[in-house]
# Entry
Amino acid sequence: MTTPALHPHLQLGPVELSIADLARSADFYQRALGLAVLKQDGQRLELGVPGRPLLVLHERSGAPMSPRNSPGLYHFALLLPSRADLGRWLQHAARLGLRLGQSDHLVSEAFYLSDPDGHGIEVYRDRPRGEWQWNAGEVRMASDPIDIQGLVSESGAQLPWTGAPEGTVMGHIHLRVRDLAATEAFYTGVLGFDVVARWPGALFVSVGGYHHHFGLNTWQSENGPDASPQSAKLERAWLRLPDGAAVHNVTGRLRSAEVPFTEEGSVLSVRDPAGNLLSFTV
# Structure
């Protein structure tokens, strides 16, 4: 009996990170990205927009940055609802003097920065799906310059950035991995994602026809060491499915492939071949 594919209505939940200084990180994420504090419990801080946690920070006092060539987080990507929102955020970032990278990926327009612990961040907007170009099941993406003037002009001079809009979501997560062949076998053959793009040293996978839910690359980490347990690093990425049956289906796929996993209540957790922890829940 064939196990059904991964549910197409998967959504990405919050990303959990360990950081060195909770007060410093809380200030950065509120000031730079406009995230709101949703809950704090001792050394654990939950940030996001009303009703939607996007980031969970765990303080590990004085933790050093993880090596750039360790498997782990390359960046997490916050998807803003509109191009105007992205333009307003860009002007806000410029006023703060934030150092940004930028790229027009054809399916999206994206800006890149790092938090105080070196965790990579992308802030982006999607072009309408009707503008995405597909060929033989793969979506066309690029790294072209953004039309900054057009982006800013669309944002509206009289509408300042007032924080992350309520429609902001975790759009995708990009991970550093060691072995692309093993990674592809796990994310597609075991979990049931679809390959939607291949670049030299990188793989992009999704469900439901999205341009990518996960980016996976070996650009720096193919022969890199594991991050120290004491370092500031990716702790977990959450994936949300629409119902218990969809989570149970993932359990079945893992059992069939004889991949170790854990179940704790309604949470199913598994590590990819590079050791990145993924947790599925409803």
About this structure: Residues 11-281 form a domain with the 2,3-Dihydroxybiphenyl 1,2-Dioxygenase; domain 1 fold (CATH 3.10.180.10). The longest helix spans residues 83-96. The longest strand covers residues 11-19. The chain has five helices and 18 strands.
